[in-house]
Amino acid sequence: MLLPFFVYGTLRPGETNHDLFLRGRTLREEPGRLRGAVLYEGPGYPYAVEEPGSVVSGELVTALPEAYAGLLTELDRLEEYVPGDPRNLYERVARDVVRAGDGTAVRAWVYVAAPAVAARLRVRGKPIEGGEWRGARA
Description:
Structural class: alpha+beta
Pfam families: GGACT
Largest sheet: 5 strands, mixed, barrel
Radius of gyration: 14 Å
CATH architecture: Roll
Protein name: Gamma-glutamylcyclotransferase family protein
Strand content: 35-45%
């Protein structure tokens, strides 16, 4: 099954990695919200940390079917995600994301902070109020 991606940082439209990785390779991009996650500041990009009670804003990106396999590989590389590697900064997990338009839940890939990173952020990180990275940088 080809899951869409939920992006909340540099892959969002208008951000640095959107044009590099997504332009011309998506079928649809629509606003969405990830419940049960807190957004933390990172070094030029944010981290979503799974915690109850908060919401992260971003886009739900549906890749063109013919671009999906290559895009998945490239996004894993961008996020430095290798399945099972304890040195990962991010983990790619399937989570329900709510479409902002109609409120329906869609299963999507989300890159969340890996366990060791999440533990450090919970202790010393700076949460981004309201779960919106763009506003936090303005």
